Amino acid sequence: MILTYTDDEIQRLDREALRSLQLLRFKKIITQALKTDFYKKKLGGAGIKNAEDITSIDDIKKIPFTTKEDLRNTYPFGLLASSKSDVVRMHASSGTTGKPTVIYQSQNDLDNWTNLTRRSLIATGCTCDDVFQNMMTYGLFTGGIGLHYGAEKLGMFVIPASSGNTKRQFMLMKDFQTTVVHATPSYMLHLFSEIENMGFSPEDFVLKKAMIGAEPHSEEIRRKIESCFSIDAYNSYGLSEMNGPSVAFECTYKCGMHVWEDAYILEIVDRNSLTPLEDGEQGELVLTNLIRESTPIIRYRTRDLTKVVSGKCECGRTARRIDRIFGRTDDMLIINGVNVFPSQIEEVIMKMPEIGNNYRILVRKKGTLDDLIVEMEVGPDIITDDTRDLYQLKERIKDELKASITINPHVEFHEPGQLPVQQGKAIRVVDERGELK
Ligand code: DLL
User: Fold this and answer.
1) 51 shares its domain with 152
2) 112 CB within 6 A, ligand 1
3) Over 90: is that where the pLDDT of 424 sits?
4) 313 and 337 in one domain?
5) With contact defined as beta carbons under 8 Å apart, do 64 and 42 qualify?
């Protein structure tokens, strides 16, 4: 069966046609995967000796999951399914400790990924008339170079600024009239707080949109970014194991991120039992890449927690959407026995108009108990000599946090610009309890 669609048609296929396309691609990926010893063993154990043993997409449930540890254990070349001479690029995870998880791409793989990044930018309303300033790090990290290729393919005017050097970012934004930026949400907020310090004013810029991703952020952070710059900000999700950005992207309706299901099989499983969940139920996102021949990865446990957003999207795209990432199975803190996700804390404090753009969560041992300290920068208007106002604000925040996470935190205020800012992904949690996480 030959299925040829334009990229626009693929995004609007009915579910049945989409599943047929997925099945075709899944079988191809199984064939590729069986070229590696790792998957020969894994798939063989599930009774899959060749692609013909797959007759439906549901057969995926027979296959054991692939984990980050599997990728580390097969480093450097254990998951390479094509000849090394077919590989034109490698990328790696952004973690700084341990062996990186590496993926390899052939020219065909890169073309497929570029197609998805181009498609994602179009879904947010970008056109070839936009000037695209890419503030994500270029290098092994997929954030910079990944969207770069899609933006070029779309015909945008691309400024490969990479991350950091805030003053130069402003200069480029002003002189080249940047209309779209790509950055982490924490860097967007940092940019805003530095505009005046660096001798610029918001009127210097003609910015219209920001693509924000690579780290967890709440709806409140998005709103903050949008209102600071008077722009639209779109959530972008991805991970290097699945190529990088453009696994899932918001469209102009901003009601969940479309997972490009012609390229990825999307499953949500219970975070403990790992059994499949229904649409609408929150669990761990598991993904299979259908369009990368050099590094097939099947049923990858992302550790990211989300749910499928039910119903049709007004934009007409049929790819299902996932909700913003609620947290990771491995970022849940257990504080004096209570489970706390950093996202719960962020949601509370970022709702407060008095609070600024940066915060940090510290967990320490105090005697035998755990101590939770939430440090936050206050907005410039709150710096006051009246300690009563600050005291009342602090008490209000403590109360709201207690209502959300059920434990009593210490709240510490800092002046704007006092908390550390990272060039790449924000480090929001500092757990000083050592082994006792
Ligand atoms: O962060 C790829 C990326 C680059 C995505 C630029 C979006 C924009 P990794 O370095 O492998 O890849 O990190 C992947 O980052 O498993 C999530 O935990 C987290 N993450 C990525 N995007 C989001 C998002 C890139 N929009 C890990 N919201 C993932 C929440 C995100 N978390």
Assistant:
1) yes
2) no
3) no
4) no
5) yes
